[in-house]
Write a structure and sequence with these properties.
406 residues, 13 helices, iron ion binding, binds iron/sulfur cluster, iron, alpha/beta, five-stranded mixed β-sheet
């Protein structure tokens, strides 16, 4: 025993759920999913975004179904995607009137691969259980799984108030934050129990309990994982923009995934104006790949650069190689099994360059300040060439392509 642990940790056992041919839980690899931000009634815009998200690597795509027009558009979107050869399962996101939309639009109910229900807003208080039951019965009739998605921002207030009152009657053994966390967990578990009583199989139920605080998310999912064996969808809600959203999502979900918790993830980043929606898919993939859970694309290792590098050539080269790989990956993946395990190194100088390059499948060590203007290239641990002159970057890109193609 060395005292080092091997990663990844064993996964929490969960009941697998088939979502339109994509397995979630039950030992299947952690699934990457995302959500459109188009108006679903806009068929052209939604088809384009679903296709882009799927091309980027989203294995399930959720779309908003909030009114008759969007429900009517769903089968058209499904047909158009099929004609384009995009067979990603579509998940319908329902709030408030989901029971009515599914009943009034059977073609929509059939075209979707899963229904997301929010137990906090499934209907008016006195009709809540009835409307929840209506959606579950619709899922049974159409043989679809559901995700019972509790959300901190739309938590069942009746349940929260009851738990707060019970806590007060007991002399406040729990803080208000702990009571809220418990309400979130109970909302998910009680709803799952109700769905099972109605007749939905355990292999048709996925749970999520999204909150916006990192520590809350870890605590809530750890408790949920302890108290059930349903497949779990992880996501930090309102994660935020840019690096804030990426760091908060990675920190919280990374800890849970390392504990074996989580069967599918969505990293919900607030898009910057004009920003690329597929960024959240890329971040989800990078999180899973960095942690050693899945392999999606070849890794490009690049040194951070320092005072020994006076030009930006190696940063530009690393970025170009990374972008080329992402662009070509769909083709490579079908042609070359295992290509996603490749490692490419782009290093800034001789200090760590040759060593890191030798450990990669193919690597280059570019000249640093004061070094002779030559760049050794290593392939499979052996020095294979020395590139010189103004076209070092282009020559190395060509060598990487040839290495992969060969
Ligand atoms: Fe700096 Fe060279 Fe290390 Fe890159 S490899 S960080 S350029 S010393």
């Amino acid at each position: 025993m060395t005292g080092y642990y091997s990663s990844p940790f064993p996964r929490r056992a969960s009941v697998g759920v088939d979502v339109g041919g994509v397995m979630v839980g039950g030992g299947a690899p952690v699934v990457v999913q995302s959500m459109t931000n188009t108006d679903t009634a806009d068929v052209d815009g939604t088809v384009a975004q679903v296709a882009a998200l799927h091309r980027a690597g989203s294995e399930l795509v959720r779309i908003t179904v909030d009114r008759d027009e969007s429900a009517a558009a769903v089968p058209k979107i499904r047909d158009r995607l099929a004609r384009l050869g995009v067979d990603v399962p579509l998940v319908g996101d329902f709030h408030y009137i989901g029971h009515k939309l599914l009943a009034d639009h059977p073609a929509c109910a059939e075209a979707l691969a899963k229904y997301r229900i929010n137990p906090g807003n499934v209907g008016f208080r006195d009709k809540k259980d009835k409307q929840f039951a209506d959606i579950v019965e619709m899922a049974i009739r159409h043989d679809k799984p559901v995700r019972i998605g509790v959300n901190w921002g739309s938590l069942d207030q009746e349940l929260l108030t009851r738990l707060m009152n019970e806590n007060q009657a007991k002399g406040f053994p729990m803080t208000a934050q702990e009571v809220t966390r418990e309400a979130i967990v109970q909302s998910a578990l009680l709803s799952a129990h109700l769905a099972e009583e109605i007749g939905l199989g355990r292999d048709r139920i996925i749970l999520s309990a999204k909150v916006s605080g990192v520590q809350d998310l870890i605590a809530v999912y750890a408790e949920l994982a302890r108290r059930c064996d349903h497949a779990l969808h992880l996501g930090l809600t309102e994660a935020g923009m840019g690096s804030k959203g990426i760091v908060a999502s990675s920190a919280s979900m990374g800890i849970l995934l390392q504990q074996g918790i989580g069967d599918t993830i969505r990293i919900s980043l607030t898009p910057e104006p004009g920003g690329d929606r597929t960024r959240e898919v890329q971040v989800s993939q990078e999180l899973l790949q960095t942690m050693g859970f899945r392999q999606f694309i070849p890794i490009v290792a690049a040194c951070p650069g320092c005072g020994r590098t006076t030009s930006t050539v190696f940063q530009e080269l690393a970025q170009t190689i990374q972008e080329d790989i992402r662009r070509n990956m769909p083709v490579w993946r079908t042609r070359y099994p295992g290509v996603e395990q490749l490692k490419v190194a782009v290093m800034g100088c001789i200090v760590n360059g040759p060593g890191e390059s030798k450990h990669a499948d193919i690597g280059i060590s570019l000249p640093g300040t004061g070094e002779t203007p030559s760049a050794p290239v290593f392939i499979d641990g052996e020095k294979a060439a020395t590139l010189r002159g103004p076209n070092i970057a282009a020559d190395f890109e060509k060598m990487v392509s040839e290495y992969i193609e060969n």
